[in-house]
Amino acid sequence: MEPLKVEKFTTADRGNGLRAVVPLRLGELLFRSDPLAYTVCKGSRGVVCDRCLLGRGRGGWVWEGTGVCTSGSELRPHLTSQS
Question: Which of 6, 46, 68, 83 is the most exposed, having the fewest neighbouring CB atoms within 10 Å of its CB?
Answer without folding.
Answer: 83
